[in-house]
Predict the 3D structure of the following.
Amino acid sequence: MKKLIECVPNFSEGKDMGVIKQITDEIEKIEGVKLLDVDPGAATNRTVVTFVGTPDEVIEAAFQAVKKASELIDMRFHKGEHPRMGATDVCPLIPVSNISMEETVVYARKLAQRIGDELAISVYCYEQAAYFPERKNLANCRSGEYEGLPQKLSDPHWKPDFGPVAFNERSGATAVGARDFLVAFNVNLNTTSTRRANSIAYDVRERGRVLREGNPITGKVVKDEKGNQVYVPGSLKAVKAIGWFIEEYGIAQISMNLTNIGITPVHIAFDEVCKKAAERGVRVTGSELVGLIPLKSMIDAGKFFLGRQQRSKGVDEAELIKIAVKSMGLDELKPFNPDEKIIEYVLAKDVKAARLIDLTAKGFANLTASEAPAPGGGSVAAYLGALGASLATMVANLSSPKRGWDDRWEEFSIWAEQGQKLKDELLFLVDEDTRAFNKIMDAFSLPKKTESEKAARAEAIQEASKYAIEVPLRVMRVALESMKVIEAMAIDGNPNSVSDAGVGALCARSAVLGACLNVKINASGLEDKDLAISMLDKANRMRQDAVMTEERILNIVNSTIEKM
């Protein structure tokens, strides 16, 4: 549920690991941020660092890293093969999950302004964060490199977006941007021929291949009026690709950089390479993911390949990932471990707190029956709702492949996807209800010796109480929403599973009524009585809707059973 962004700063030091370590230490100090990779290059004298986390924390970590780099790296003595203009040369932000590019641009500009204001470093905003069209291209921003900065800064057209116009001799300038997630993705071929692999790469990459007169291989290269080579575009946008031979595996590959997975996702790139390879008598045998990938990309791939099979896409997350891995052969060359390759899963490994939903059914029941005050009725209500949504999803998934209903698979797939989404939210709320309870307990444990402490404690109790009402209200809303799926399955789903829809309705109604009790008991502690009345009114309306909907569903279920 968290917003996540990735940051990939490039620092102009690739030889002194002591300097690099001091910079990355600043990143690792920030809670809520995970350092994923440090890639130093001696020849380029440059280190690419990758970390990810929640937006505010990523911005703080990036700023502290840029600050440390400005203290340790003196650009007056820097030499390297890679173009560069500053101690921190570039610092792009990339949206990973639950955050839009527009929001990421805001964070990038916020970081750029802070670097300019607090560190007196000239900053240019590039890619999606650019203020001017000519600054979208990083190469334009970096033209002239460090040595050309004095002249560049004297040109009003190249006044920095943030920071001083004066040349910072020690730190140079920095480019801060927002760009799409880049995925390094290789497709394996049943050939050892680099030439054939390159031909396929040229077929698919956006740039395409050089246009020739007559024979496409030996013909004369066509040039435009300026003498530049003319290219025939490939079939995939936002894709760079070449063919190469991998001696370690004894095969040729298409090596691709997917520079915008919103335009060309991994599954589309894989599918297109399969088509182009087949046209040239070559077979794709699998693929390889270099680095990390967002969870959404794997989920989308799983749904894509299930859709190709005309199977329901409304299956759980783990199954979708498994389908994606097997469909693209991501495990052909080496095992594919989602915990190590999917960004959200890498971050989750660092979460130490145990979750109720990770318990066995027996473990959850035993913990509920123990002397522990949580989980209580609120978590149980959310779990009942999750079971109700699960039963509705099951009926949809059983209806999708029903013999004679082949033309209806997509209809049931849509219902199953809705059910899965509602189930996942209710599972999240199982633990969130316990966290809300713990917030109240924490507030009551605050000190109350002084007047200011008493006031702070009272305010914390009220805020925690509000949240302890908002969570069960959300349980009610989501469980009530699931009853739409349940009712649809009772009416149109596989009649042999109609009793399952009925049990789902009973679970959903119980979730709504149970959560309503939590709203009532927590509303009694609110000092803001108008707010309490408003929340109780919402809860009572949803309670009434749930009771009426349950009765309607059960009438449908019983009527269907009686006709069997």
Observations:
- The chain has a mean pLDDT of 93.
